[in-house]
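Q: Convert this sequence to structure tokens.
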Amino acid sequence: MKRVVILGAGESGAGAAVLAKEKGFDVFVSDMGQIKPEYRALLDQNGISWEDSQHTEALILNADEIIKSPGIPDTAPIIQRLQAQNTPIISEIEFAARYTTAKMICITGSNGKTTTTSLIYDMLRRAGLDVGLAGNIGNSLALQVAHEDHQYYVIELSSFQLDNMYQFKADIAILLNITPDHLDRYNFEMQNYINAKLRITRNQTAEDAFIYWSEDPIIDREIARIRPQATLYPFGSETHNVAYTDSRNLIIAARKDVQPLQVPLDELSLKGKHNCLNSMAASIAAQILNIRNETIRESLTQFAGVEHRLQYVATVRGVKFINDSKATNVNSCWYALESMTTPTVLILGGKDKGNDYSEIDDLVREKCHTLVFMGLHNEKLREHFSSFGLRIIDTDNLQDAVVGAYEAAHDGDTVLPSPCCASFDLFSSYEDRGDKFMAAVRNL
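A:
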């Protein structure tokens, strides 16, 4: 019996373990942290052996194949031992895809992944298709394949997940943008990160679709270099793209056999330039899947957005609070600031991933009068922004950051936590950070 060891017992690892057990493998799960009670229960219900708070090498190094959590870096000692003995290491997505014939709509990019993934999922559901949501959001793909396999999956893919995918193929691949992110994971080499993102085109043929933002200079350069085999569907601001904008409308013309879809820009439910691009990418995918223009229009004008991404929280005595905790890199913060229409108090900080803050310099000077730093190590932020002449409030906890931001704000201002950084210095996730921010605002 082939032995499969799963490293990491979060959503993806626990789901992969259940699917592996169902397919007749000898399965063992190991996690260096503590496994959450709900995942322990799932493993126990399925008769799967597990350990937490350690990696027992004798139980891991004898694996025929490893399914690795995307959060575990290649520098982890257990991974290096496995690589040294040439044990195959794959992702949960790679493993799950072996056992389904569903169409895969896959989305990656430095920013906009969750919004675009959620919007496509909304379009497919409105069209009545049998669709699952997986990857970085939704439920484990492997668990869905094991228990309720769908005809379509909309999958948000991080660069970490793409790193360990080899035979997997996206029927529709979407690359939204590429800006510096996670460089600490890629030896601070931008090309390594770019190469990870481009793996979304791996194994595609001319029968598949590759949707991409044509005005991203990195994507434009790399497409010329790698020459994807898939049929290309570019989107952007120019009319040579299959989706673009004119002065008043969003126009989608991905298929020559149907009338182009036109939606007035002021009717789109998702506002801002970045969301216009996300809406283009999602609409192209929907048209390729033969979803009616009327259904696409309905989704574009009614979709409510995603939590923790420019999410309105409350207005407290004239000060508006917006939760943008999902902005875990500098470019995402740029888009948030670009959409601000009032004077702004910006909250920054967390676990720095090799950030270059100069990208937001002009917008910080234009939009912000106060910066609030919220992290255990704010030295890099202080060094970069101290010469801007703005008020700076330095904190090491969320409560002080919220109170300081509120006290610095004036009637009609916006308080915006768009941290540019990962959350793991003070929080378990960006969701945890956003939830606690909203709770702190409501307690003002």
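The longest strand covers residues 368-374.
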